[in-house]
Specification:
By secondary structure, this protein is α+β, with helices and mostly antiparallel strands. The protein is built from 28 helices and 11 strands. The protein has helices spanning about 5-20, 50-65, 70-90, 95-105, 120-135, 140-170, 180-205, 205-215, 215-245, 255-260, 265-285, 290-315, 330-355, 360, 365-395, 405-430, 430-465, 475-495, 500-515, 525-555, 560-585, 595-610, 610-625, 665-670, 695-710, 745-765, 785-795, 800-805, and strands at about 515-520, 520-525, 635, 640-645, 650-655, 660-665, 675, 685-690, 720-725, 730-740, 835. The strands form 3 sheets. It has a 6-stranded antiparallel sheet with strand order 6-5-4-3-7-11. It has a 3-stranded antiparallel sheet with strand order 8-10-9, covered by helices on one side. Strands 1-2 form a two-stranded antiparallel ribbon. A hairpin with a 2-residue loop joins strand 1 (about 515-520) and strand 2 (about 520-525). Helix 2 packs parallel to helix 6, helix 17 (about 430-465) packs antiparallel against helix 18 (about 475-495) and helix 20 runs antiparallel to helix 21 (about 560-585). The longest helix is centred in the middle third of the chain and has 36 residues, at about 430-465.
Amino acid sequence: MHPLRLTRLLLLWLALACASAQGWAPAPALAQAALGPAATADELAPPDYKEWEKTATRAEKQIADRETESADHETMRGYLVQWRDTFLRAQGINASRIASARGQIDALGPAPAEGATEPADIAERRKDLNDQLAELRVPVVSAEEAYQRADGLIREIDRVLRERQTQELLRVWPMPLNPANWPEAAGALTDVTLTIWTEGAERWTSDEAQATARDNLPAILALLAVGLLLIARGRSLMEQLTQRLQDQASARGRKVWSLLVSLGQIALPVAGVMAVSHAVRLSGMAGPRTAEIVEVLPAIGFILYVAGWLAGRVFPKACHQYAPLNLSSERRREGRFHAAMFGVVIAIDALRITALPPARVGETASSVFAFPTIVLAGLLLFRIGQLMLASVRNDTSADEPTTYRNSLIGLLGRGAILIGVIGPLLGALGYIAAATALVYPAGVTLGLVGVLFVLQTLVGDLYGLATRNEDGGRDALLPVLIGFLLAIAMVPLLALVWGARVADLTEIWARFREGYTIGSTRISPTSFLLLAVVFAVGYGVTRLFQGALKSSILPKTRLDQGGRNAVVSGVGYLGIILAALVAVNTAGLDLSNLAIVAGALSVGIGFGLQTIVGNFVSGIILLIERPVSEGDWIEVGGVQGTVKSISVRSTRIQTFDRTDVIVPNQDLVAGQVTNWTRYNMTGRLIVPIGVAYGSDTRKVERILREIAEAQPLAILNPPPTILFMGFTQEVLSFEIRVILRDVNFSLSVRSEINHMIAKRFAEEGIGLPHMPREIWPQEPASDTLDAVEIATLLEAPAGRAAQKDEVPKGTSAVHPDEGEDAEGDEGDGAAEGTGSSR
């Protein structure tokens, strides 16, 4: 498709998109206008099938006639599309009454088997309902049949038009390199030049034209002055202003403003061209052929200036400006020239089609005139493709894999080089239509990719401006998603560029909008959109209710924190299930037909996902029974830590060295779990102490009792217990056993007790064992001492006993029930008899 036609079709595409979004308005002949926009399917009157029969017959005759023009086919296709939409709506006639009749029939129960009977009154009622249902379905069946016929005719017209398009592309024109064809082209150019000159001369000598020019002279002069000034200086002024904004590195939002201001490089010169064109029309000096050329001047100017602006954005002058290609300053300057020149080539070809249309000058002259621009366009594509490949080489190291972005740029570059070679070769062989359909769409495609880059950059800059992070805005998730959506939205434009008809795109949209029939249910994008909206509303209401429960309602109840979390989680799961059910019901999706498929898949799901299902059920049990709650200190499978969150599949435990351990819920339900803090926070702390032989044991007991009772977290009922555990070869072994109000602080209490023991023992002269110990051969191998040795050691002074036995055996003993804390967290210690174990 030629770019000049593309410019006109873009506006048509937008209008058709809006029309398709609202639905085709039925033709007056369809007798639907009286219904109004609020009419429902049951209120629709049946279509005028007699009028439809005439339209269908006429369409069949046009399709059979090979001489029918493509424009006539397109017009007829538009009528058929309107009829098809009418028949699609007519398929909903009596929908509610049909559903009611079917429900009544189902209420009567299944029909009796062959040879069986049922009560006479039920049989009579069943027969009446079946007759009523058949009568109600008559207009529906007629609409379905007419819909299929209209759809078939549309498909036939599309097939005919595609065949003609293919034949046109493969048609061989006179070879432009044949010198025998050049005189005809020169003659055609001379005729056009003489025609324009003659028209101008006649207008110049015409009294009527002179009078028109004199009457409009002030406006003509003003338009010419403004237009020529904008053309001459408008683009350069806006370019200087844009460059000044880009150089202001400290200005907030400079990237966004520079891009918006740079659009003036297009707007001002194009406004100048429009002013000059309007001035020429006001003068009355333009003849018919000249008026045709003057009329397309604004479109040609738009192509020229858009190409120049886009070249400056893709190949910027400033080195600090973000660019999609990694090129040097010299290569970027070359890229700007080639991109701008491609716009010039497109503008020249558009001017050629307007001044020398093939229908008027013939195929021979058109072939000769079109070939030079095809060759020039191919050469420009070849050079631009080389620049893209150079960017990929500059951006990729030898030992690094090529990124997806560079792979895409490399693919586009190789495609541009290939088309830049093949296009001129086809044109030289006489395939002018095929060459034109290759080189110009390829260049426009690269231009659209450049526009996509500019839009994605703008989105990233706007996001960075909103989040006050202008440097990292492009890498955020939201701009990337918006850029992906923009790329998808660019697909219809690319289809138009490469020769797709607007009717092809509207047909795809119509198929998408109509949806697909599964069983007795028609599923359309509208249904899915309604389902998504209802589910989103239900999900939002659930989240709001959860927030109200968590912050306002549950804190005023007697539930503990674990119970509150369980209630909030349960409400969330229940709300999501209800939202899904309501959404499915509101969208009108009948899922009963999927029951058989679900039943068949249930066995495979049961075997393949049994672990996940088991963990899910275990999570529900944990939320209901609450043997473990968030914040509890538990031990499961050799892992100790605090429960941070419980989901339906797993539980997250944060250990005391600040690592997260994900434990499947099935292990918490089926395995043995020790919960140190589930029902209360009290727990017993055991601190072993070893003192040197010769120490006063009663005095030691008294001091240890005072130390234990002095602890703020120690419970005095029952009071702390001081036990003289026995004799070893090295020490006299004691233990402090104290119940703490909060077992989570056992480590800090242990540390404080040890500090006080060291201080009090030093003040009271009680000796502690020392390291290292020297082992004598004559020492008994057994740890048990006889009575004589015990008496001797008890009578010996503490210092001498300490010299004999210098190794403590129980000074830092850890109770078997106590845990470890790599970070020194409070919350790890021994809790005996107070936790819950399953």
